[in-house]
User: Fold this.
Amino acid sequence: MKKKLSADILEKYFKGDCNENEIAEVNSWYNSFEHDEDDISALSDREKELFRDLMLNNIRDNIQKAETSNVINLNRKKFNRTLVYFITSAAAILLIVFFLKGKMPAVSPAANEEELVVNNMTSAIQKITLSDGSKVWLSPNSQLTYLKVFAAHSRQVSLNGEAFFEVTKDHARPFSIYSGKITTKVWGTSFRIKSYKNDIPKVDVVTGKVSVSIYKANRAATDLSSPVQTDPVQEVMLTPNQEAVYNKGLNTLKKNAEIRDTTINIWKKTTVSFDNAPMAEVFKVLSKKFKVHIWSADKKVNTDYLNADFTDESLPAIMEMLKNTMDVNYAVNGNEFVLVSNK
Assistant:
């Protein structure tokens, strides 16, 4: 039999304000659901889908909060650095149970189809987290259009410019990116798309398998809730370290057995440690690992030291952490990264 629990205690739990007795009460209440039937069985298919999207949004928010809690202590003298990643899975599960008890707010189809547009007018790479947990690293002078909450059977976005995608696996919902004349479709992988107006469009794959296609009609950025396109004029399949290049004049795709643009290396994850290293040494090591040039002319940056363990991280992810914790900014131009202090 399910135990009853006050909504006030749940709210306190999510805020982290519960005492030990209240935490024990919440845990006991949650455990009472273990052997009961699934409470979502009474929901319609549409309600289940809205519920699923809402839970993904809540989990995404938890992840974002965790990422922003990373701490890198930087001093002019020796210091310690603690990197903390956590996801409150118990809270996420409790959120599910909480909403299953009839507290899920009503969401209209119109609200579910709201489109968001992000224009990166900065000089740094901007990180965007989508409703399914997928990450998009949007390059300067680029635009991403996407649904606030993805549709029931597909995940579709539109890109003008350049972005690197880390797509969350979901075999039931393909992830499609419309960038000019080409369409890129995946289920869960990481890859880069370049589609600037006056440049040669291309798709470079880092992990997984990617489909790149040409269709008779282009998908409009304002049509992202429609069914996924079918029957391409041409389609090529890419695996890691391969690329597809679009020929505008011939309206064709060419598959290359290897990626020729060396800037793709910034997206290849690596593990690196620093033990009270001066920033000049940090820049040298990272530059060598990612085959780029990282530097700073700012004395406030160059006189700092770093004690850090970066595990399975891309260069933009490392730069994002340094940016958020050192109070610095950076500008990227091709294979050059320049840091400047905000102090």
Q: What stands out?
A: The longest strand covers residues 155-166. The chain is about 25% helix and 30% strand. The mean pLDDT is 78. The first helix runs from residue 7 to 15.
